[in-house]
Amino acid sequence: MRDLIFLTLLPVILYCMAKRPFIALGMWIWTALFFPNAWMYGLGNTIRYNLMFAGITIFGYLVQKDKPPTRWGAIGTLVTIFFLWTCMSSLLGTGNPVDVMDRWTYLLKIVVLFYFVNLIVAKKLHVDFFLWSVVFSVGFFAALEGLKFLGSGGGHKIEGLPGHVLGDRNELSVAFVILLPICYYLLTEFGKRSHIIKWGMLGLMGLIVMSIIGTQSRGGMIALTGLFIYMFIKSDRKIPLAILAGVLIFVASYFISEEWAQRMDTIGNAGKDDSFMGRVVAWKLSFIVAVHNPIFGGGFKVIEYWPNWQALSQEFDSFPFFYTGEARPDPKGTHAAHSIYFQLLGEHGFAGLAIYLSFIVVAFRKAGNLSRRARQHVETAWMGTLGTMLQLCIYSFCLGAAALSFAYFDLMFGLLALIQVMDSRILPAQLAAIESARAAVAPATPAPVKAVRAR
């Protein structure tokens, strides 16, 4: 039935996408995050929607007559340099060639998405449609799983969809945390126009919090806690925010299981937790790779290649200052890096990590600067709110993914592109329009009259 409904709507969707490239762009990120194939079982399951929608987006942009001017800015330049760096690390690396090509291709698709967000998004409508597409993908799944969690009295354990970019529950929980600031922006922007949207977004944000708890992800809870603290410090409405947090904690306490409580208790005793110390072992192996290959690293998934894992394990005790307690490399199999920072360090070297962190820091600072400039005018105040929320998204990602191999995430690169395009294209255009409007209504200053001397 789902296949029939979606396939019936597909021609209409394709027509709208062909007419409006920004709609195609929104559907591109929607398919990347929603993974429609996992929800269908018949003919609809065989179609590569993401590839189809990406192709239509690219074609629609190429035939578009009035293309907005392209300004890559510092973020676009650094992302391009980083991608070129990964090309070199892939060529010179020592990882499994099949895995290297798979991850390089995956990153290529993400970078292409980043480029076309820069090329297509030109106004507020485009930004809002992109963000609503994110909400109707990750947000839909969060709402559905949150309802299951509440309906089961906290017994439902939330997992990602198999084969999906968010298939891992830890990565899924971080994506849920990143979604909260986006929902807040949409609430402030559209909630005042409709009570349905207002209460719907508030309900969705509550379900997202429940879903984060339901994943039983320690990284997700750390990111959620960090997000609340950051929002509390930044917010002008500290009392309502504290009350809201208290209500959510009170409600959540009825659905927290003993297993969940035990997992969260290990955060304070990380040094005694085998799972966490196993991650520290992977971090050390990634560090050893970077020591031997400081410029380009070892390539994608370098420590997940068994010959590399064995060779690095033999050098494990050569760096005693990198403390791992009694934990040692697993002699039976490899493990992922389990940290975006050590993942990048091992895969692309100290230089690759520095480039990645550079565009993250630049984007964070640009979002803050964008927010300050935009708040000076009523017409651009929406960018002031969104700039702050995008800062929170970056902060949540950097905090939550510190213990995850999650460096290449479609949504984050898309949000970085939004920051770039708002800073270099949308805000300057709106400020210029404001100045033009003010100049048009300003009274003309009469020219001084020269006195005529009588003869």
Automatic annotation (TrEMBL):
Pfam families per record: DUF5935, Wzy_C
Transmembrane helix listed as a keyword: yes
UniProt key word Glycosyltransferase: no
Transmembrane spans: 42-63, 72-92, 104-122, 129-150, 170-187, 239-256, 276-296, 340-364, 385-409
Predominant localisation class: membrane
Annotated GO MF terms: ligase activity
InterPro entries to which the protein is assigned, alphabetical: CHP03097O-antigen_lig-rel, DUF5935, O-antigen_ligase-rel_domated, WaaL-like
Domain DUF5935: 1-186
Protein's cellular compartments: Membrane
Membrane topology: Multi-pass membrane protein
Keywords: Ligase, Membrane, Transmembrane, Transmembrane helix
GO cellular component: membrane
Coiled coil ranges: none
Domain O-antigen ligase-related: 205-357
Name the UniProt record assigns to this protein: Putative O-glycosylation ligase, exosortase A system-associated
